[in-house]
Amino acid sequence: MSPTTKQGLQLPGWLHDILERHLDEEVELPILPEASARIIALCEDEKTDAKAIEAVLERDPSLASHVLRIANSSAYAPKEPIVSLQQAVSRLGLGAMRNIVLALSLQGRVFKVPGHQTKVRSIWIHCAVAAAFGREIARRLRRNVEAAFLCSLLHDVGRPVVLQATISALAHRTKEPLPAALLETAMDEFHEELAGRMVASWKLAEWTVVVVANHHHPERAEPHEEQAHIAYLADLLSDWAMDESKAPEDFRADDPAIERLNLYPEDIEKLLAYRGKALEFAEAFQ
Fold first, then answer.
1. 217, CA 20 to 30 Å: which among 60, 61, 154, 249?
2. List of domains in the chain
3. Do 58 and 85 touch, CB atoms closer than 8 A?
4. Tens digit of each residue's pLDDT, the chain (286 residues)
């Protein structure tokens, strides 16, 4: 847990202790829908038969229709329309199928906080844009693009849960709306640790847990430090891309992560030029 947030603020000690205890002892971590959890587990096994995934999707028509919609969207831009679940599984591959199903599940189960939907939707879009950038960074580095997508998608998954937990923990202390700065500070401080717990509870690979729980401190993610740097840089790029007032020259091109990943100035230029496509990619998941 970081003692200071990225805004440079700190929670009062008494509030930090209340939230830490509440998150440790009282918060129930979100559970993925049964069909989604089964598909994700199947996709984690390289020996999985595509027919097994297809069979699970066939039993959940709503999930199946959403998968086909995204598989045919600009996010994946198939050369020919994908018209069946069998085509979707075979063309996309296990990694992409896992990521699509997980993204759909997160929207339905995790990114929901009554009364704060505008804020939560912004967090979701940020995660989706980061996922697009993570995939693009990995492509330029010739690394596993779906692994980079996954970690970048999940990096802020703890924020909505911390938001809800903060509201619940302080509900008996005040009936007044909690200051936005306080809620933001609580999310900044606790979201990494909680995200790691969530990802572990969903039985995703251990390296995913390590990266997500340390994306603000990639040096702590050994031996997965490079993947954590990708998620960290994707986070920065998403912050920049979602701020319409920011121009390319406003991006922090001197960040140490860029040197650590051995990205050249021309690589950064191309990543910044990817802004429109990243935003379009995120829109496909809405």
1. 249
2. 10-26+114-286 (1.10.3210.10), 31-109 (no CATH)
3. yes
4. 333 445 557 788 888 888 899 898 888 899 999 999 999 999 988 888 889 999 999 999 999 999 999 999 888 888 899 999 999 998 999 999 999 999 999 988 889 898 899 999 999 999 999 999 999 999 999 999 999 999 999 999 999 999 999 998 888 777 777 888 999 999 999 999 999 999 999 999 999 999 999 999 999 999 999 999 999 999 999 999 999 999 999 999 999 999 999 999 999 999 999 999 999 999 988 7
Q: How far apart are CA 67 and CA 65, in angstroms?
A: 5
Q: What kind and span of H or E run contains 271? A: helix 265-273
Burial of 31 (0-12, 13-18, 19+ CB in 10 A): middle
281: amino acid identity, one letter: F
Phi-psi region of 77 (alpha: psi -120 to 50; beta: other; left: phi over 0): left
- CB burial of 54-87 (b: ≥16 within 10 Å; e: otherwise) equals bebbeebeebbebbbebbbbebbeeeeebeebeb
